[in-house]
């Protein structure tokens, strides 16, 4: 049996050009590795997995993996995934989006998909920037950060993805980091198997469009920063506000067991059919 | 950890490596270096402690860590549930 890397090569589409287009050191590549290991670990066949990805560097992922894939429209991956899940709830539907994709153009779909608690496994690769289109600020760009559209520093406050999803009603909400791949594998498997709307935010360094403009000399420096600032959630919760400043809590934030939309729909359908039979 | 030292082979696929330097920067045993060609290579393979960091974190799937001993070459890196 394959070692990890060989395993990953097994799940890639060999008619595509490799190495992939991601820049050297891009966190999206690490997330892709984790995704493949997780699908393999769960024993899912390639045919029962549907990956719906948006547009952006993150969305490119759908091009490379040998599952059923939809490279959707920017910001609309969740709408297409909703249709797929409702038409065949047995499919494992994985949605991959960037922060711009999920929260800027697609923010409305994001909160409503979470509110409906539809059974989707949602990965948001958060690099705090629009990577693909030239480094414009996104709704997760931190206050003060320099981007091509905020040359004097971002003036707006950013979204906390985890809090947003939790408030909107997601059943499962977690955060992982590209520097902590083993932890990411665990959280990803949990995200893939949890009932209802399950979100995993992956903190994913983009040096090309974000790091360079924000005092990270090399991409390795961004991973050093992740190594230093990432904190397990349990530990993070014990820190004083002052000590917690600038730290990135990783772990499981929400773990609810509400019935999902497709389950409610199946129940309703069974009820209605039974009633019609009685009439 | 030290028990495992020197028991692994570290292979880099140069065609897939983009030379980001993550493996070289974070390898606890300093096994890897970025060469003049801008690609990673295992310069101190005998020091490898088989932690698997480089293989897990290579964004380009360009590194393989395998036991030198063929009888150990089963599935030591894949999560247990994955074994078929
Ligand atoms: C409707 C529409 N508007 C705008 C674009 C241009 N566009 C492509 S990707 C992108 C943003 C990508 O940023 P993000 O979603 O954060 O992904 P990343 O590239 O950072 O992974 C934009 C604005 C588009 N393709 N379609
Ligand atoms: S621009 Fe950023 S997000 Fe896109 S591939 Fe490069 S490093 Fe990754």
What do you see in this structure?
The complex is a heterodimer of chains A (about 280) and B (about 80). Chain A has about 280 residues and is of the alpha/beta class. Chain A has one domain: Thiamin diphosphate (ThDP)-binding fold, Pyr/PP domains (Rossmann fold, 3-Layer(aba) Sandwich), CATH 3.40.50.970. In chain A, about 40% of the residues lie in helices and about 20% in strands. In chain A, the strands form two sheets. In chain A, strands 2-1-3-4-8-7-10-9 form an eight-stranded mixed beta sheet, sandwiched between helices. In chain A, strands 5-6 form a two-stranded antiparallel ribbon. In chain A, helix 5 crosses helix 6 (about 105-115). The radius of gyration of chain A is 19 Å and the shape is globular. Chain B has a single domain (about 10-65), classed as Alpha-Beta Plaits, CATH 3.30.70.20. Chain B contains two helices and four strands, in the order E-H-E-E-H-E. Chain B has a two-stranded antiparallel ribbon with strand order 1-4. In chain B, strands 2-3 form a two-stranded antiparallel sheet. Chain B is globular. Mean pLDDT of chain B is about 85; it is low at about 75-84. Classes of the chains: A alpha/beta (about 280), B alpha+beta (about 80). Chains A and B meet through helix 1, helix 2, helix 8 and helix 9 of A and helix 1, helix 2 and strand 4 of B. Iron/sulfur cluster binds near residues 22, 28, 132 and 208 of chain A.
């Amino acid at each position: 049996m394959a070692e990890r890397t060989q395993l990953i090569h097994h799940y890639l589409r060999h008619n595509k050009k490799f190495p992939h287009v991601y820049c050297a050191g891009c966190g999206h590549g690490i997330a892709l590795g984790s995704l493949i290991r997780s699908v393999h670990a769960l024993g899912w066949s390639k045919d029962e997995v549907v990956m719906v990805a948006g547009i952006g560097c993150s969305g490119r992922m759908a091009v490379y993996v040998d599952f059923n894939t939809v490279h959707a429209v920017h910001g609309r991956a969740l709408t297409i995934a909703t249709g797929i899940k409702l038409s065949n709830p047995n499919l494992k539907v994985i949605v991959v989006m960037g922060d711009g994709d999920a929260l800027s153009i697609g923010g409305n779909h994001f909160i409503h998909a979470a509110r409906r608690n539809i059974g989707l496994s949602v990965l948001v690769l958060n690099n705090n920037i629009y990577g693909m289109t030239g480094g414009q600020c996104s709704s997760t760009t931190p206050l003060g950060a320099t981007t091509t559209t905020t040359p004097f520093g971002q003036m707006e406050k950013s979204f906390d993805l985890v809090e947003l999803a939790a408030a909107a009603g997601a059943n499962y909400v977690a955060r992982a980091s590209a520097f902590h791949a083993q932890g990411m594998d665990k959280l990803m498997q949990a995200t893939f198997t949890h009932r209802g709307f399950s979100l995993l935010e992956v903190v994913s360094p983009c040096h090309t469009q974000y790091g360079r403009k924000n005092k990270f000399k090399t991409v390795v420096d961004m991973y050093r920063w992740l190594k230093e600032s990432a904190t397990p959630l349990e530990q993070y919760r014990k820190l004083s506000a002052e000590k917690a400043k600038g730290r990135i809590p990783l772990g499981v934030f929400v773990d609810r067991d509400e019935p999902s939309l497709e389950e409610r729909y199946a129940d309703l359908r069974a009820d209605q059919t039974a009633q019609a039979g009685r009439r | 950890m030290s028990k495992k030292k020197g028991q692994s082979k570290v292979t880099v696929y140069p065609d897939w490596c983009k030379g980001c330097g993550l493996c070289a920067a974070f390898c606890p045993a300093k096994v890897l270096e970025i060469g003049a060609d801008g690609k990673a290579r295992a310069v101190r393979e005998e020091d490898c402690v088989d932690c698997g960091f480089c293989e897990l974190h290579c964004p380009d799937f360009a590194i393989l860590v395998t036991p030198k001993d063929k009888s150990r070459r089963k599935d030591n890196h894949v999560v247990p549930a994955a074994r078929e």
